[in-house]
């Protein structure tokens, strides 16, 4: 049986891992290559590298780090942040990314998802959406969650999937950084609407939050989190063991550090 | 030395790195002399069958691959590279594969329960049908990483492992010196590296 995936997300700026709470207040955590290697060894099923660098120097540093990571970490690697063109896809795929996640780039250029899926295959294209409730409606936000695009989230995500996105990362701005659990209501709305894997992001604070996620929403394929993993508040081997004990299919590894 | 056949599709960086990780020298190449010189060949591949088949044909490497396979050189097809080893493929039409292993490549929708997500993406367990040399370092039910919408059918005599995704899917095959894995060993952590290690130990 296919297992549910546990995915640590590494926000990378100027070559270092950072994690914002509600997207502001960055604090340095560790070296991306070391952290990725550590996560792979303790049983992470996949990794997401998110490039939050704005400068071109930082971008070069990011691709160097990506290459270093891909040469020693052998689990699937998704890369996002600053993906606006097919050249951006090319740039990160050549450095060892397996999937590329698009966010604002797909909002600015609605044909990007379609063109990328045609060239690299749907399995390679992930639509990542930052979503927040505005007057009771799920709205897509751009620019790292700062700008309301006015797009209704479920129909926007559906359209991206029809255009060829092979996976959806749904990040709830409402629950992000709050550590009171995933946004079940929002995730249900999206996972009921699409037929591709949905990755839940935003709000996990403890092991129980993951158990609730997968028990309540069997259609959700993966849970993503950042700081709770980076700061050791939730340890991946313990998390996966607890999920397995709750009847959630898990890949349990015997790897030791 | 292993030659990773470069015919213009796919991310070969991870594959090359994973071979280095098991101590194997690997070259990513589209040169006939490299393929002839190598101890073994890997045929990678992602994307659509038609495009990959066309790219492989226009690379001019097909006769060289066929000759080396006929001489008994170990050949491993990975993911779409495994699908290319078969006779026929039914992805958006009917296409001829290399025909190194009897069987056909068909949509997994015909093999799995309705309502399941396609592609089959994620970690799934291997169930051995024939404990090929490739699996000498791994155990029944070890997990490997899959990303695919099509799989090989009608190849039961050559099936070495299967996986259960609401229906039985072909996970790996072997016919003599020709091997195929539907999953990605280069993305399957220690289990995957153990499979690659076993492959590079075959002479």
Task: Give short descriptive properties of this protein.
heterodimer; A: alpha/beta; B: 203 residues; alpha/beta; Rossmann fold; eight-stranded mixed beta sheet; 14 strands
Verbal overview:
- The complex is a heterodimer of chains A (257) and B (203).
- With 257 residues, chain A is of the alpha/beta class.
- Chain A has one domain: Alpha-Beta Barrel (TIM Barrel), CATH 3.20.20.70.
- Chain A is 36% helix and 24% strand.
- Chain A is built from ten helices and eleven strands.
- Chain A is globular and about 45 Å long.
- The longest helix of chain B has 12 residues.
- With 203 residues, chain B is of the alpha/beta class.
- The mean pLDDT of chain B is 94.
- Chain B is 25% helix and 32% strand.
- In chain B, the strands form three sheets. In chain B, strands 2-1-3-4-14-13-12-9 form an eight-stranded mixed sheet, with helices on both faces. Chain B has a four-stranded mixed sheet with strand order 6-5-7-11, covered by helices on one side. A two-stranded antiparallel sheet of chain B has the order 8-10.
- Chain B has six helices and 14 strands.
- Chain B has a single domain, classed as Rossmann fold.
- The interface between A and B is medium-sized, with 35 and 33 residues.
């Amino acid at each position: 049986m296919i297992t549910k995936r546990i995915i640590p997300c590494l926000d990378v700026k100027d070559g270092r891992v950072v994690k914002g709470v509600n997207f502001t207040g960055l604090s340095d955590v560790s070296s991306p290559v070391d952290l990725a290697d550590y996560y792979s060894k303790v049983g992470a099923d996949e990794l997401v590298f998110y490039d939050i660098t704005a400068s071109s120097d930082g971008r070069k540093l990011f691709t160097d780090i990506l290459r270093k990571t891909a040469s020693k970490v052998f689990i699937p690697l998704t890369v996002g942040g600053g993906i606006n063109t097919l050249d951006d896809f090319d740039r990160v795929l050549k450095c060892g990314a397996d999937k590329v996640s698009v966010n604002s780039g797909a909002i600015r250029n609605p044909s990007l998802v379609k063109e990328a899926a045609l060239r690299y295959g749907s399995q390679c294209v992930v639509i990542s959406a930052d979503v927040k409730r505005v007057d009771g409606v799920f709205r897509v936000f751009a620019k790292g969650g700062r700008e309301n695009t006015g797009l209704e989230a479920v129909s926007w995500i559906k359209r991206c999937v029809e255009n060829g996105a092979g996976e959806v990362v749904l990040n709830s701005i409402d629950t992000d950084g709050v550590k009171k659990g995933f946004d079940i209501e929002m995730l249900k709305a999206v996972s009921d609407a699409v037929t591709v894997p949905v990755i839940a992001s935003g709000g996990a604070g403890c092991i129980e939050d993951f158990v609730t996620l997968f028990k309540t929403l069997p259609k959700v394929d993966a849970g993503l989190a950042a700081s709770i993993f980076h700061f050791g508040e939730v340890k991946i081997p313990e998390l996966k063991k607890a999920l397995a004990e709750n009847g959630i299919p898990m890949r349990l590894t015997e790897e030791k550090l | 030395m292993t030659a990773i056949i470069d015919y213009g599709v796919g991310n070969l960086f991870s594959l090359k790195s994973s071979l280095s990780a098991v101590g194997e020298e690997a070259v990513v190449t589209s040169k006939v002399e490299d393929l002839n010189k190598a101890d073994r060949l890997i045929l990678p591949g992602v994307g659509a069958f038609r495009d990959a088949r066309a790219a492989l044909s226009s690379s001019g490497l097909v006769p060289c691959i066929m000759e080396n396979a006929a001489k008994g050189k170990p050949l491993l097809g990975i993911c779409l590279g495994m699908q290319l080893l078969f006779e026929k493929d039914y992805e958006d039409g009917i296409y001829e594969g290399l025909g190194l292993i009897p069987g056909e490549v068909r949509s997994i929708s015909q093999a799995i329960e309705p309502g399941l997500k396609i592609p089959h993406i994620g970690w799934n367990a291997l169930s051995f049908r024939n404990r090929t040399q490739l699996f000498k370092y791994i155990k029944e039910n070890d997990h490997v990483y899959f990303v695919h919408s099509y799989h090989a059918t009608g190849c039961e005599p050559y099936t070495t492992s299967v996986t259960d995704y609401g229906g039985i899917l072909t996970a790996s095959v072997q016919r003599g010196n020709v091997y195929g894995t539907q999953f990605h060993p280069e993305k399957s952590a220690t289990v995957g590296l153990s499979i690659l290690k076993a492959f590079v130990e075959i002479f």
